[in-house]
């Protein structure tokens, strides 16, 4: 049995909650906004202002089921972008590049993409907002390739790939997946792209490197350009 005082308190609380809900729906507030532009702006029911559409639910591509390979790609990309993995790369870059600006953080973005054209998986990093290089960019590119080989090796090594890609799909003993994962590893292409910018010299250098197989030859691509002068004040 509920005590009369408690029952009265609960009733009052319900009334207050109901009143607060009514006030919110009506669009009124007890405390005005600090700026009149905010206080006087017309209000609307946001949920009623959205035009409904069937385009997305009827699109066959968007509603197709995800493959196991696509699930693996998600797992690999997540692994590449883990805080610890990115921090290791940034520490290496700290030794090889100046800061583009004291307040600008270097951008390190990992990716894992399957190419329909070549039937291979390109895994790598795009690294931007690097300052002037202190050493050949080739050396920094090689460092990132080494990191990729440790994270997503191009050959079957222990249970590295088992732990990285299987996740909820590991229904059986790990050894049942070793052959498939060895095939997966042999189809990795490791790639790195570095973008170095010097605002003092108004130049930008882009350096890429790639390895298509374990202990394979590293190939390179590069480009440079002169930046437009800063506008005069």
What does this structure look like?
The protein is of the alpha+beta class and 233 residues long. The protein has helices at 4-26, 36-39, 68-80, 83-96, 137-151, 160-166, 178-186, and strands spanning 97-99, 107-115, 120-133, 188-198, 203-211, 218-226. Helix 4 packs antiparallel against helix 5. The longest helix is centred in the first third of the chain and has 23 residues, at 4-26. The radius of gyration is 28 Å and the shape is flat.
Report the biggest beta sheet as strand number plus sense, adding barrel if it closes: 6 strands, mixed
Report the mean per-residue pLDDT as an integer. 87
Order of helices and strands: HHHHEEEHHHEEE
Helical content band: 25-40%
List the helices and strands and how they pair.
Elements: H1 4-26, H2 36-39, H3 68-80, H4 83-96, E1 97-99, E2 107-115, E3 120-133, H5 137-151, H6 160-166, H7 178-186, E4 188-198, E5 203-211, E6 218-226
Parallel strand pairs: 3-4
Antiparallel strand pairs: 1-3, 2-3, 4-5, 5-6
Helix pairs in contact: 4-5
In summary, what is this structure?
The chain has 7 helices and 6 strands, in the order H-H-H-H-E-E-E-H-H-H-E-E-E.
Q: Keywords for this structure?
A:
alpha+beta; single chain; 233 residues
């Amino acid at each position: 049995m509920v005590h009369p005082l408690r029952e009265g308190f609960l009733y009052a609380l319900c009334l207050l909650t109901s009143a607060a809900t009514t006030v919110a729906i009506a669009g009124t507030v007890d405390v005005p906004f600090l700026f009149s532009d905010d206080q006087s702006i017309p209000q609307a029911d946001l949920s009623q202002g959205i035009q409904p559409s069937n385009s997305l639910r009827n699109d066959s591509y968007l509603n197709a089921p995800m493959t196991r390979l696509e699930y693996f790609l998600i797992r690999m990309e997540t692994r590449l972008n883990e805080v610890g993995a990115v921090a290791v790369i940034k520490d290496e870059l700290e030794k090889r590049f100046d800061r583009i600006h004291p307040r600008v953080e270097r951008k390190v973005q990992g990716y894992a993409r399957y190419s329909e054209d070549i039937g291979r998986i390109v895994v790598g990093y795009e690294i931007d907002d690097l300052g002037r290089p202190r050493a050949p960019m080739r050396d920094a590119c090689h460092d990132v390739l080494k990191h990729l080989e440790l994270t997503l090796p191009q050959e079957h090594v222990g249970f590295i790939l088992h732990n990285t890609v299987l996740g909820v799909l590991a229904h059986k003993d790990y050894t049942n997946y070793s052959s498939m994962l060895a095939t997966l590893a042999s189809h990795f292409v490791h790639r790195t792209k570095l973008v170095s910018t010097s605002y003092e010299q108004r130049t930008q250098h882009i350096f890429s490197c790639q390895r298509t197989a374990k202990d394979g030859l590293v190939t390179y691509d590069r480009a440079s350009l002169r930046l437009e002068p800063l506008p005069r004040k």
